[in-house]
Write a structure and sequence with these properties.
signal; CarboxypepD_reg-like domain-containing protein; CarboxyPept-like_regulatory; Phage tail protein beta-alpha-beta fold; 25-stranded mixed beta sheet; Immunoglobulin-like; 4 domains; 5 helices; eight-stranded antiparallel β-barrel
């Protein structure tokens, strides 16, 4: 009979985790020839021959039973099945102890064994061994051993063995008794199918996947590629610690609740996590996480995360995250992000981000961000950014606090406080500086540069100043004017100004130009500063390419600075010699003239 010390040790063993070695004592082979001996004595004999010690509760084994046994070359497991009855006890090893536990009907049974390579005979480590109906799995250790603990309420068990680069192997077992099954698996020799390279990764290879999933979970995902099950629900504390255990990554659930985080094959309903959700395949309907969601397939519905969403395929619906949203495939719907939203392919819908919204392909809809928007291909809609917008082709509007850049054609509007640039403009540019290669529209700004557009230098005289020069750039439809002029008298007067103009071609060599300019005018005396507003209409004649003569009437309005209001003019009032009218003490309007030449 085992001592009290052994009984005490047994109680401790029952609370300890399962050992890492499999069936070392149970696989020992021996001969046994005993007649009419108490069971306790027979067990001691077996232990002595096998160099180990049995441990069990005294009331669990009928020690006083008289038994006889006469066998040769039987394993310890087989001897115990003969003595105790097959399937009545569970055998557990711990170090040099072999623990016997009575197994009541309807409890569990164990399947153990070794997985080997059929061609080489070598033991295969990291192979997945699983039961398809109970969704219970394990992975072989470095020696190829495995151990499955299965419920015996089913009449049979469907055991499968899967390993990356090997053919799947399946077998059926009768339940209700512990058994040892050694399995050989064959390396896969089939031709790999042709697949489309999409650039998509797997959730296990993402940064968060590598961080949050164990090596066993990653290995199992690589091994089991063809088997997936549908279940109504699952609840987990963390990956592998839940309703479906280590098989959670192979199950598609209708409802999934993950306290800290979960790892599943898919969602066809609702998934909620306090921390994170990692899904290998598709999500349909709703996925919500306090921190992050990682989805390996498509998302159809609503995806919400406190920090980050990452979808390795497409999104159809709504994606909301406090910091960042990512989608490797196209997006149809709405993406709302506190900081950065990015879609690797096309967007059909709306992207809103606190810092930047970007798409690698076409955008049909709206990009709205606090700083930066990017469309990798064409944009049909609008980009609105606090700082910068860029796109390939624009059909709609680009509105930015600082800069808009379009690599191709703008059919619509570019509006920026500082700078607009496009290859071709078929609409309007409004900004401090506007640049285009060519335009059939309008550029409105202080400086308008069109590479294949309107570039003219004019030198002319007016009724006010004999020497004036103006640089005109943009397009015939609308060009900007930078102008300056002066006289050469003792008390020199001068002006600098800005304006806009338009040239209307009447005949190949004859045009009408209309211009409006605003200038600051210094009248030759200290503090004699004033403003000029000039509207001109001139006829321009081009006798040959690169040269033109122009002239015509000018309507001018002149106003002195308010700080000298009430003081008399030091010199003659401007325009006094031309037909016009006075505007109070500080202003006058009159009809004058201009005449000059234009080159380029």
């Amino acid at each position: 009979m085992p001592s009290k010390f052994y009984t005490y040790i047994l109680s401790l063993f029952l609370l300890l985790p399962a050992p890492t070695l499999f069936a070392q004592q149970l696989n020992k082979v021996m001969d046994l020839h005993l007649t009419k001996k108490p069971l306790a004595e027979v067990l001691k004999t077996i232990g002595k021959k096998g160099n180990f010690t049995f441990s069990y509760m005294s009331n669990a084994v009928p020690e006083d039973s008289i038994v006889s046994i006469d066998v040769e070359r039987k394993t310890v497991r087989q001897l115990l099945d003969i003595l105790l009855g097959e399937g009545n006890y569970q055998y557990k090893e711990y170090g040099n102890y072999l623990i016997l536990q009575y197994k009541p009907p309807g409890a569990f049974f164990y399947v153990t064994g070794v997985v080997t390579d059929k061609q080489t005979g070598q033991r295969v480590s990291n192979a997945s061994v699983y039961e398809r109906h109970q969704l219970i799995s394990t992975i072989t250790n470095n020696d190829g051993f495995y151990r499955l603990r299965l419920r015996d309420k089913y009449p049979a068990a469907a055991i499968s063995v899967s390993k990356d680069l090997y053919n799947d192997t399946s077998l059926m077992l009768l339940a209700a008794q512990d058994q040892e099954i050694n399995v050989t698996i064959s390396p896969s020799t089939r031709t790999l199918p042709t697949i489309e390279v999409t650039g998509y990764s797997t959730v296990e290879k993402t940064w968060f996947g590598r961080l949050l999933l164990s090596s066993r979970e990653k290995a199992q995902s690589m091994n089991i590629r063809q088997f997936f099950a549908d279940k109504p629900y699952q609840v987990s504390l963390a990956p592998s610690f839940g309703t479906h255990g280590r098989m959670s990554g192979q199950v598609v659930n209708k409802f999934s609740l993950n306290v800290l985080g979960g790892y599943t094959a898919g969602v066809d309903g609702v998934e909620i996590a306090g921390g994170f959700n990692i899904v290998k395949k598709d999500v349909d309907n709703v996925q919500v996480a306090g921190v992050l969601n990682i989805t390996g397939g498509k998302v159809h519905g609503v995806q919400v995360a406190g920090l980050h969403n990452n979808v390795l395929d497409s999104v159809t619906g709504v994606q909301v995250a406090g910091v960042s949203n990512m989608a490797n495939g196209p997006m149809h719907g709405v993406q709302l992000t506190g900081a950065v939203g990015h879609v690797h392919q096309s967007v059909n819908g709306v992207q809103v981000a606190g810092i930047s919204a970007s798409a690698g392909g076409k955008v049909e809809g709206l990009q709205l961000s606090g700083a930066f928007n990017r469309a990798g291909d064409s944009l049909h809609g609008a980009q609105i950014a606090g700082i910068f917008n860029t796109g390939k082709e624009i059909q709609g509007a680009q509105i930015a606090g600082a800069v808009n850049i379009t690599k191709g054609t703008v059919k619509g509007a570019q509006i920026a406080a500082l700078f607009n640039k496009a290859h071709q403009v078929e609409g309007v540019q409004i900004g401090l500086i506007n640049i285009a290669d060519s335009t059939t529209g309008y550029s409105i700004g202080l400086i308008n540069i069109v590479k294949h557009g309107y570039h003219k230098l004019s030198m002319f005289s007016t009724d006010m100043l004999p020497a004036n020069v103006a640089w005109k750039s943009g397009s015939r439809q609308l060009y900007s004017i930078l102008t300056a002029g002066m006289n050469f008298e003792d008390k020199a007067s001068f002006l600098v100004g800005y304006g806009v103009g338009r040239e209307m071609v009447l005949r190949p060599k004859l045009s009408v130009i209309t211009e409006f300019m605003i200038s600051t005018f210094h009248m030759g005396e200290e503090n004699e500063n004033s403003q000029l507003y000039r509207l001109t209409g001139s006829l321009m004649y081009k006798p040959f390419k690169g040269f033109a003569i122009f002239g015509g009437p000018v309507f001018t309005m002149h106003f002195r600075d308010e700080n000298i209001e009430g003081k008399p003019y030091i010199g003659p009032r401007p325009g006094a010699d031309y037909p016009g009218f006075n505007i109070g003490n500080t202003g006058r309007g009159w009809l004058g003239w201009q005449l000059g030449i234009t080159i380029f």
